């Protein structure tokens, strides 16, 4: 017996998850991106992660076109940026000082001040899964910025405190 949509959402809203912006370069290097919490590590050898992208997403076409993507892990207190990329606007990158990734087929890397980390990936495999495509990405480069992450939990943003600095 299948569960209903509301119960399915409730189960996963009880599980805190990192808030990420997945980006890719589309035709003519037009940047595309979406907010998601459907990101997880898969393998250490080779280094693989997965992201899930809805079949109705404009970013899906850009990801398929370029063969690469970046996972921009948002730092705490970046709700406005998360909301910007969760929407349907075609101007998500307007006024945002992003740069193209050399390791991830030109995928936009968001400004470091907004991030706790970033992973630059090449598509390793795409798998159809219901109303989403699951992309396995081979991590070709990564940066950790040392900022507290922003999480999504119980259908709301959750900001963790800044990590304690290591001292002598």
Automatic annotation (TrEMBL):
The keyword Oxidoreductase applies. Residues 12-159 form the Flavin reductase like domain. Keywords: Oxidoreductase. One of its GO terms (molecular function) is riboflavin reductase (NADPH) activity. One of its GO terms (biological process) is pyrimidine nucleobase catabolic process. Signal peptide: none annotated. Gene3D superfamilies: Electron Transport, Fmn-binding Protein, Chain A. This is Flavin reductase. It comes from Streptomyces olivaceus.
């Amino acid at each position: 017996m299948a569960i209903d949509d509301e119960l399915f959402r409730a189960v996963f809203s009880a599980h805190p998850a990192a808030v990420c912006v997945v980006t890719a370069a589309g035709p003519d290097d037009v940047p595309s991106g979406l907010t998601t919490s459907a990101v997880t590590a898969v393998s250490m050898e080779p280094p693989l992660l997965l992201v899930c992208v809805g079949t109705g997403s404009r970013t899906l076409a850009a990801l398929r076109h370029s063969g690469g993507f970046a996972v921009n892990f948002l730092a705490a207190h970046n709700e406005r940026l998360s909301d910007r990329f969760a929407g349907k606007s075609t101007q998500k990158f307007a006024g945002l000082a992003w740069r193209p990734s050399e390791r991830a087929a030109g995928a936009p890397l968001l400004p470091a001040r907004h991030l706790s980390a970033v992973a630059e990936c090449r598509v390793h495999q795409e798998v159809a899964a219901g109303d989403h495509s699951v992309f396995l990405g081979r991590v070709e480069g990564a940066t950790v910025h040392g900022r507290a992450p922003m999480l999504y939990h119980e259908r709301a943003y959750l900001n963790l405190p800044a990590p304690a600095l290591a001292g002598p």
